[in-house]
Design goal:
This protein is mostly beta strands. It is about 0% helix and about 75% strand.
C-alpha cells in the first residue's frame, strides 16, 4: 500500500457482494473492467498511463483515447495519432488541428 491506495488492484467481471456489474479496480496499478490508477488497464481506464477501450490519461492508448499523448482509433490530445486524430500535432487518416498530417488534413482553426 502507498498511502490509502493498494499497489495492485485487479477486479474483473461482476461482483455479486457489492452488486456491481463491472469490476472496479482502484490502485497504483489497476487492472479491471473500470480501472483507475497511475497505470490503468481496462475497458474504461483512467490514469497517468491508461490503456483500454476508452482511455484517459497523460498517455492514453485505446479505441477512444484522450491525453496529452493519445494513440487510438479516435485520439484527442496535444500529440494525437489515430484513425481520427484531433490535436495540436495530429497524425492520422483524418487529422484535425493546427499542425495536421495524414490522409486527409484539416487545419483548424482556419488561418
Amino acid at each position: 500500500m502507498i498511502g490509502t491506495l493498494p499497489l495492485l488492484s485487479v477486479a474483473l467481471g461482476p461482483d455479486l457482494e457489492s452488486q456491481q456489474t463491472r469490476g472496479h479496480a482502484i490502485g497504483i496499478v489497476a487492472i479491471g473492467d473500470v480501472a483507475i490508477g497511475v497505470f490503468a488497464l481496462g475497458g474504461l481506464a483512467v490514469g497517468v498511463i491508461a490503456i483500454g477501450g476508452a482511455a484517459c490519461g497523460i498517455v492514453g492508448i485505446g479505441g477512444f483515447a484522450v491525453g496529452i499523448v493519445a494513440l487510438g482509433g479516435l485520439a484527442i490530445g496535444v500529440l494525437s495519432l489515430g484513425g481520427l486524430a484531433v490535436g495540436v500535432r495530429s497524425l492520422g487518416g483524418l487529422a484535425i488541428g493546427p499542425h495536421p498530417t495524414g490522409g486527409m488534413s484539416i487545419h483548424w482553426p482556419s488561418p
